[in-house]
Amino acid sequence: MTEVHFYHDAADLAGVACHLTAKAFNAGRRVTVLLPDDTLARQLDQMLWVRQPGSFLPHVGLHSPLAAETPITLGTSVPDTGWTQDDVLINLCDAVPPDFAQFKMIVEVVGQDDRQRGPARARWKHYAAAGLPPQAHNVKGEGR
């Protein structure tokens, strides 16, 4: 069954996504990050290159020919061919990701803005109605 985790009150969406991506990668997991726009995607891409000195996290775009072979993928839309892995999906978008139930874990990152909280509540209800009770984690004040 898919686990669902909501990390809410994130002051820095890309920072929290980077931290959670690194944590999952270091635990041997494959990670896909779905982002709402190219600006945030570029920001996260840069963070994954320089998270800590000498600690590159291997990643490519979701639409890259190397996506199926790379442990971390990022993108703003699902490829026409579908997801390239089924382990961890980190979602920073307002909508429930398509085919979310194929993943072992869904991680929702929600900011402090009310414009993000409303759609996040709808996603929470959607997962709960699908029989996947979400777990909440408050990241406010954690510096990421």
Automatic annotation (TrEMBL):
InterPro entries named in the record: DNA_pol3_chi, PolIII_chi_sf
Gene3D superfamilies in alphabetical order: DNA polymerase III subunit chi
GO molecular function ontology, one term from the record: DNA binding
UniProt record, GO biological process: DNA replication; positive regulation of DNA-templated DNA replication initiation
Domain of life: Bacteria
Protein's name according to its UniProt entry: DNA polymerase III subunit chi
Organism: Nitrogeniibacter mangrovi
